[in-house]
Every structure is written in C-alpha cells, then in structure tokens.
TrEMBL record:
Reactions mediated catalytically: 2 a phenolic donor + H2O2 = 2 a phenolic radical donor + 2 H2O
PROSITE patterns: PEROXIDASE_4
Protein name per Swiss-Prot or TrEMBL: Plant heme peroxidase family profile domain-containing protein
PANTHER family documented for this protein: PEROXIDASE 52, PEROXIDASE 72-RELATED
Keyword set, alphabetical order: Calcium, Disulfide bond, Heme, Iron, Metal-binding, Oxidoreductase, Peroxidase
GO molecular function, one term: heme binding
Family: Belongs to the peroxidase family.
Disulphide-bonded residues: C9-C34
Record-listed heme b binding positions: H2
GO biological process, one term: response to oxidative stress
Length: 129
C-alpha cells in the first residue's frame, strides 16, 4: 500500500495531464509541481497520500475513492473493476486494513528465497541472467 512515500513527477505526469479518472482539483494541485514537459521537473516529488503523507493509515484508500490516486496504477485499484469493493472496505475500516497488512507482511517474511547455487542475483530484476 502506498500509504507512506513519494513519487517522482516522471512517474505520475501522464496521469495528471492525460487521464480522466482523476479529481480535477487534485490534478491541478499536482501540476503546480510537475511541468507537462518531459525533462522538466522530472525529479520533483509528490506524496503518494496527500492527506497524511507521513502516517501509516488507510487514508490512501479514501484518496482513491475521491479519485486522488497519484499514480495511474494506484487509481486503477478503484476504477470500476474487481478491486473496488476492497478499496471501499479499507477506506471505511482502518482496523481491517491494518490487520490484512500485518498478515501480508508475515506471509512475505515467510517466503524462502533461493540462495547459493539454487538462486541468482539478477543484473536486471526483470530478466533471468
């Protein structure tokens, strides 16, 4: 969950200038710090969660309900698809979000990566060496 952190302008520029599934006021606010021209302000940062950028909470999901997802991929979680109900559930119930997040972190911690001769350190994470 993108409840804490920031994104670079280059990662959200297309969403705030060219997409319709975004709140107009939110898009204009983000545009003030992210010029439309590629190469201009590419490294400017914006918070992923505009309301509570430094607090781990469920505000990210209420932002999605209001079409204030900074990244295209985030807003796709609430855009008329199969994940809409989960976004609504987390937006209305912080305890459910927190409990599910704990379970997910435990599961990720239980993943046993391949090591030694059984695994590899990839030079490019998208491709097998």
């Amino acid at each position: 969950a993108h409840t804490i952190g920031q994104a670079r302008c280059t990662n959200f520029r297309n969403h705030i200038y060219n997409e319709s599934n975004i709140d107009g006021f939110f898009a204009r606010t983000r545009r003030a710090n992210c010029p439309p021209t590629k190469g201009s302000g590419d490294n400017n940062l914006a918070p992923l969660d505009i309301n509570t950028p430094n607090l781990f909470d469920n505000s990210y999901y209420t932002d999605l309900l209001a079409k204030r997802g900074l990244l295209h991929s985030d807003q796709e979680l609430f855009n008329g698809g199969s994940t809409d109900s989960q976004v609504k559930a987390y937006a209305s119930n912080a305890d459910a979000f927190n409990a599910d997040f704990v379970v997910a972190m435990i599961r990720m911690g239980d993943i046993k990566p391949l090591t030694g001769n059984s695994g590899e350190i990839r030079k490019n994470c998208r491709r097998v060496n």
